[in-house]
């Protein structure tokens, strides 16, 4: 029988995270304080994050030990499997070999707990009593709720109101794991009250929810903030994905020609890709491809510039690809990946030409997800469908060119809680929406003026 | 680091199913034709099932080979992991060791594809073009849809109307896997039309949906019927669960003192338990415990008698524990496991005293599921929560008695698609409903009069 799943035993959960910073070609731009317009210091960040995470954020050490307490919780689902997509290859009639790393095996159903667990751990060690965070549809919120529950921390999640109302399942998961879930904008913060005064019926947005969570954290002594993507330490925590995947590919004597991940804030992409970026820097001939939606085309149509992390301009300013902190993806967009910015680390790699980016329409992504489900069984999260689209495109190109090629992509989560998006696709309610260049130009007018 | 997950490599997917029939103490009662009141012959069953499955249903061979084509699809998720519940043990402060076999890793999120895949395979080999089946909340419907998709069969699922309307996620999963989903009662069958004439607003029931699917199958040449539980061959297909679990326990040098599964129709219970029943027959000192809801207490308050498999009296008559084919569990019951009967094999083992049965209230079950999620992470399906309740009860008894004890239970599925039931629990909307004995006596008046 052909090998379908490549498994690793529990003792192969990586013992160290890979920190890509020392291996970057250029130096990273500093992070800027939104109040002073000066580079932030660790002390500036202390109201937001516990010191161990601040240290990781700026560390130039290549390998950082994963505490046993973290590995013990990761063992609830890690190492995650790598699958060879025999059946999809056959349906496509491609000479390419398609592998995928499957992160949907975590209790929350996505890769997000890979960083939620260590974040909760370091907060616990540091003495934090409560974590405040935000969530859109709930992938991140459910993961941080799970992580807080595992380490006995309280957890408050500001959930974008339209999702709170319309996507109740992940809200229920957060509550089951003991978190307090608050529809955002709320009356609990100045940021929320400000929005509600202008528009009492506001549906909220991720940017607003971030502002609320940040304010909650900085105004409460024992509370810290937690972010599920974008930051350096978050990307680093996710590298367990790529480190395991490399070992799994080696077990079957294979190595990818192209590595593909979907890209929103950048964490699942970074998690799979960074360990392969290291190989590329050492001369390996490998393509590394980030797939994003055309309705939120940060890496392909944004600018590489300093910008705020949130709408209310309370979060630190980073140099990254951005569509402008005011940018709002259209309501029609069903596939997640809605952040206006991108992880500074991924941005720098795109800017340096190490990582390629491509934008795809949601209709093609759901098409790919359906083809995938019907051959491989697993129902992908809408976000992950962007990576599948990328992989199928590569496989079809290999077929046209009559070339063998090894493709590895990250299936970052399952879609059991996102079936309404599939319904909308089958009902023909989804369209591809490509943002007009003028709209993007407009939101790019408000970038901060950082002078170093 | 302590072992959390016990994994098996892919080549350890069992190569044979275990058929318990030759190992039963007594002979099995015959299955009776509902029309003739005589024992059914294989030919009688041919309009319903393909011959290879009929042969399996009556086989007295102890081991039956699993075709490679089936093992290749099972490899998409099997062997499933066995977990040691270290964190739950610690929360309970019990000296007991708790292990659980986790079947939620399948693409459909439950154990049901273990039999859906071989059923679709044998239908394909036999020349069936379409499978008709029924589903309540959709666990089985989604599994047979997946299986038909894997083997290129058409699939029609009659879904109990109230679930079709109120539980849209598994309906969407079925459609994604290419099945036609029809709210039952429907106008497509005599059985459905009969119900709709009396009550156009009928919400449907599992018994009615079975009648519709059976009628669809027997009235269409290339169509066969498929059942997700109860039958001998279904229980046998599920034995991969217990066969793997035994090997996994042996890997850590352990063996259970008690094996626990939830019980509705009997298939997940049989799947874990039967390979251990074999050991018990060979002298092993082991308890085997079926957990069922007090709102549908088939094994604990039913009678061991002949009864129809469905409401419309079209399905074969089997000797089993039954509450009467007219029995309807209360609407308030959120936890699945609603079938009026039980697998004849499980029934016989209960009758012979080999298997114990216990009924529990849904409030205690959700309590157990919450405790489990908050320690082990995984969110259980409401059905599976009955097994967790049983395991926690055993662990607490071990604590009181100060005894070491090894507990193994089957976590038959995840609850990501069942979050509404958790919401109802947290909102205090769930009550324990114990059927009044008079109601059960009433529904037991209509048992068929079988004379052999």
Describe this protein's structure.
The structure is a homodimer of 452-residue chains. In chain A, 60% of the residues are buried. Helices cover 40% and strands 16% of the residues of chain A. In chain A, the strands form 4 sheets. A 7-stranded mixed sheet of chain A has the order 1-4-5-15-10-11-14, sandwiched between helices. The first copy, chain A, has a 4-stranded parallel sheet with strand order 8-7-6-9, sandwiched between helices. In chain A, strands 2-3 form a two-stranded antiparallel ribbon. The radius of gyration of chain A is 20 Å and the shape is globular. The mean pLDDT of chain A is 95. The longest helix of chain A is centred in the last third of the chain and has 17 residues, at 385-401. Chain A has a domain at 5-10 and 67-109 and 234-445: 3-Layer(aba) Sandwich (Rossmann fold). In chain A, a hairpin with an 8-residue loop joins strand 12 (303-308) and strand 13. Chain A is α/β, with parallel strands linked by helices. At the A-B interface, helix 3, helix 6, helix 8, helix 16 and helix 18 of A face helix 3, helix 6, helix 8, helix 16 and helix 18 of B.
């Amino acid at each position: 029988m052909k090998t379908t799943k490549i498994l690793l035993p529990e003792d192969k959960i990586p013992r160290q995270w890979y920190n890509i910073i020392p291996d970057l070609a250029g130096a990273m731009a500093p992070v800027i304080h939104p109040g002073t317009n000066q580079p932030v210091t660790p002390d500036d960040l202390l109201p937001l994050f516990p010191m161990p995470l601040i240290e990781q954020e700026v560390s130039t050490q290549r390998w950082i030990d994963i505490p046993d307490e973290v590995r013990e919780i990761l063992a609830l689902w890690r190492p995650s499997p790598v699958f060879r997509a025999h059946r999809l290859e056959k349906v496509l009639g491609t000479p390419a070999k398609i592998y995928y790393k499957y992160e949907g095996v975590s209790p929350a159903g996505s890769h997000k707990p890979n960083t939620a667990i260590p974040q909760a751990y370091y907060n616990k060690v540091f003495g934090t009593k409560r974590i405040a965070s935000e969530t859109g549809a709930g992938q991140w919120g459910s993961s941080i709720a799970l992580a807080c529950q595992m380490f006995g921390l309280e957890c408050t999640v500001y959930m974008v109101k339209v999702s709170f109302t319309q996507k109740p399942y992940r809200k229920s998961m957060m509550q089951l794991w003991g978190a307090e879930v608050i529809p955002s904008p709320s009356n609990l913060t100045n940021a929320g009250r400000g929005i509600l005064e202008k528009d009492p019926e506001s549906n909220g947005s991720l940017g607003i929810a971030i502002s609320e969570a940040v304010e909650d954290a900085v105004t409460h002594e024992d509370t810290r903030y937690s972010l599920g993507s974008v930051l350096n330490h978050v990307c680093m925590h996710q590298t367990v994905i790529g480190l395991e995947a490399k070992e799994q590919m080696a077990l079957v004597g294979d190595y990818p020609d192209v590595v593909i991940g979907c890209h929103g804030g950048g964490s699942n992409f970074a998690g799979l890709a960074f360990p392969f970026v290291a190989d590329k820097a050492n001369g390996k001939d490998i393509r590394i491809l980030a797939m994003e939606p055309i309705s939120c085309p940060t890496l392909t149509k944004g600018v590489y510039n300093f910008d705020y992390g949130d709408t209310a301009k309370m979060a630190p300013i980073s140099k990254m690809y951005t569509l402008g902190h005011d940018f709002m993806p259209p309501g029609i967009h069903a596939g997640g990946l809605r952040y206006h910015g991108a992880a500074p680390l991924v941005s720098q790699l795109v800017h340096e030409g190490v990582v390629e980016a491509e934008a795809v329409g949601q209709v093609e992504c759901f098409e790919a997800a359906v083809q995938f489900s019907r051959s491989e069984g697993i129902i992908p999260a809408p976000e992950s469908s962007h990576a599948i689209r990328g992989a199928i495109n590569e496989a079809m190109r290999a077929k046209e060119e009559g070339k063998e090629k090894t493709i590895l992509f990250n299936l970052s989560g399952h879609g059991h809680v996102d079936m309404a998006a599939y319904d909308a696709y089958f009902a023909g309610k989804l369209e591809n929406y490509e943002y007009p260049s003028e709209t993007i130009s407009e939101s790019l007018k408000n970038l901060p003026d950082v002078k170093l």
